[in-house]
Amino acid sequence: MFVGHYAVSFALKATQKKASLGLLFIGVQFVDLLFFSFTLFGIERFNLIENYTESTHFQLEFMPYSHSLVAVLIWSALVYFLLRLLVKKEKGLSGKISVAFALAIAVISHWCLDLIVHTPDLPLFIDNTHFYGFGLWNNALLTYILEAILLVGGLYLYMKSTYHSGINETAIARYGMPFFVVLLLIVNFINIFGPLSLEETTQSSAITALALYLVFAIIAFWLDKKRVCS
Ligand SMILES: [Zn+2]
After folding, report:
1. For the CA atoms of the chain, what is the radius of gyration?
2. How far apart are alpha carbons 14 and 27 in whole angstroms?
3. Three-class DSSP category at 125
4. Distance (Å, whole) CA 31 – CA 140
5. Eight-class DSSP state of 137
6. Are 177 and 29 in contact, with CB atoms under 8 Å apart?
7. Which of 103, 150, 190, 211 is most buried, with most CB under 10 Å away?
8. How far is the CA of 30 from the centre of ligand 1 (A)?
């Protein structure tokens, strides 16, 4: 799954206003950021095979350190404790859950949503055993629709819990985030339905993915600053 993960970022932001939307964008893609970084160093592996499934050209060969359930739980615990250290005083925070907990949930959510779309290539354990995946990627249209519904649903929750105030009454504050979501949907359309280009290598794919995740997080951070939490 690609942009559908950001639904969780929007929903968590609606629950905990103090959590940075930019960080939540990083959080939901944290294990993919690890995966593509690891592939650049040969620690994990994927291959490019045109239309390996209807929705992706990626054959995800070896990813136990980033994408096994046990690894994801460990990464999310690390993120939780690191944030507890960094964000020391969480007393008096409004919202039902702490910022650290919101980020930990963001990290775990990636595996749960990946489980729906991946073919059985998600390991349970770090020793790369017991693979799961419900295989929605075998149907490109359904994959696209599911991600779109999730993302628009997340945006709805976010827009309902934030507003553009008098001082923030700009077109960017008002329309920026919905426009950004439309952009994400277009990028995902190309991602799911686009052909595999001849020049593409696993390295260039990994670098493109990492760059997109970072750029999306920066845009989300910037647009979120234009809005006020209610
Ligand atoms: Zn993933």
Report:
1. 18
2. 15
3. strand
4. 23
5. G
6. no
7. 103
8. 9
